[in-house]
Amino acid sequence: MFSTKDDFESFTVHIEDDFDLEKIADSGQCFRVKKFADGFYRFITGNQAVYIRRERDGAYCVSCAKDAWEKVWRDYFDLSRNYRAIRKKAGDRNPFVDRALEEGTGIRVLRQNTWEMLITFIISQRKNIPAISKAVETLSKHYGKKMETRYETLYTFPTPEELRHATAEELKACGLGYRTPYVMDAAQKVSAGCLDLKAIAAYEDQELFEALQEVHGVGKKVANCICLFGYGRTSRVPVDVWIARAIQTECDGENIFEDFGEYAGIIQQYIFYYERNRN
Fold it and tell me: Which of 52, 60, 85, 213 is a good FRET partner for 11, with 20 to 30 A between their CA atoms?
């Protein structure tokens, strides 16, 4: 299934749970979102694109390929999970967490393509979000496939096979810098079947976490990002500078995430959003 401009149709969907497009786009987990002047947000995953805008409370105008909303985007936006209930359950334990939950209301942890998450979060190391987005778009334009929608020309994120023959010089020119050999190693391992991203989806959390670190340049933080945003392992907590700072300055150095069990990664996302935006 590949989106073309003739596939796009517009319709209304109803989402009664927490769902804030601006906060989702600004939550540091997806790097190919674009906001248009008319209020639409565009998201891309694999060879699919969706354009979505809030019309009124709980009602959203959606434009995407026929059947794609049910088959692709409901899972992508994690709409089978009740985030309002998660916030309620997590509340009243820690005043700092309560503030983060309130400020971040509307965030959802997206279920993204595992290959794209592997490469994107390798690229993300020591880069700010605009720089990550620029590198990802440049890679897509150079190595992905052209995709026409009603609104614009896009490029799919390159497959392992499309990236494996790229030279180091070509990848560095896309803004990858010292991460170039890491991306090359990932493309080689996945395209050769040494790392089967579908097969490891059956692993337990810790085993999955360790398998991902077999790729050169994938450390604990990146592996946890892939677990959380690619494989939906919501107990995994990526610790970056924002989360580390919150633990030290707001939680007296205590790892509060252990209290939230299977939803620790979701609570982490509220705190990440809150910390980054208030600073």
Answer: 85
Whether 3 has a pLDDT exceeding 90, the answer reads: no
Same domain for 225 and 120?
yes
CB 18 within 8 A of CB 25: no
**Range list of β-strands (E), 57-144:** 59-65
**Domain identity same for 28 and 134:** no
223 in the same domain as 122: yes
Name residues whose C-beta falls within 8 Å of residue 148's C-beta, 6 or more positions apart in sequence.
Answer: 4, 5, 154
Q: Which domain, by its residues, includes 162?
A: 114-229
Taking Cα atoms as reference points, which of 78, 135, 117 lies closest to residue 222?
Answer: 117
With residue 22 as reference, give the H or E element that holds it: helix 21-25
Q: Within a domain: residue 275?
A: no
Whether residue 2 has pLDDT greater than 90:
no
Q: Tell me if residue 118 falls in helix, strand or coil.
A: helix
pTM score, whole prediction: 0.94
Residues 70 and 140 in one domain: no
Give the other-Cβ count within 10 Å of 174's Cβ.
21
Question: What CATH number is given to the structural domain containing 186?
Answer: 1.10.340.30
| Inter-residue contact 79 to 17 (CB < 8 Å) | yes
Interval 135-188: pLDDT, tens: 999 999 999 999 999 889 999 999 999 999 999 999 999 999 999 999 999 999
Other Cβ atoms closer than 10 A to 160: 19
DSSP 86-147: HHHHH-SS-HHHHHHHHHTTT-------HHHHHHHHHHTTT--HHHHHHHHHHHHHHHS-EE
Return the structure tokens found at 180. 């170039």
Q: For the sheet with 41-45, list strands across it.
A: 8-14, 59-65, 48-56, 41-45, 34-35
Q: Looking at residue 18, which CATH number applies to its domain?
A: 3.30.310.260
Known catalytic residue at 89:
no
Report yes or no: 136 and 32 within 8 Å, Cβ to Cβ: yes
